[in-house]
Amino acid sequence: MSSRRQFVTQSALLAFCSTLAHRTALATPDSAPGWSNWSGGQSCSNQALLYPQTEAELVSILKSTQGTVRAVGGGHSFSPLVPTRGTLISLEAMNGLISHDPKRLQATFHAGSRIAQVSSELSNVDQGLFNEADINVQSLAGALSTATHGTGRQLQCLSAYITAMKLITAEGDVLHCSRSEHAEVFQAARVSLGALGIVTEVTLQNRHSYALKEQIRVMPISEAMHYVDQNKDRFSHIEFMAFPFGDRAMVKTLAETQAPETPVTTPWIDENTLLEFAANTARKHPWSNSGLQHLLGMFVSDSTRVGPSWKIYPSTRAIRFNEMEYQLPAAVGMQACEEVMAAMRQHRLDVFFPLEFRYVAADDAWLSPFHDRDSVSISVHQYYRQDYHPIFAVIEPILRRHGGRPHWGKLNTLTGKDFQEIYPHWADFKRIQRQIDPHSRMLNRYLRQTFA
Ligand SMILES: Cc1cc2nc3c(=O)[nH]c(=O)nc-3n(C[C@H](O)[C@H](O)[C@H](O)COP(=O)(O)OP(=O)(O)OC[C@H]3O[C@@H](n4cnc5c(N)ncnc54)[C@H](O)[C@@H]3O)c2cc1C
Question: What pLDDT is attached to residue 48?
Answer without folding.
Answer: 92
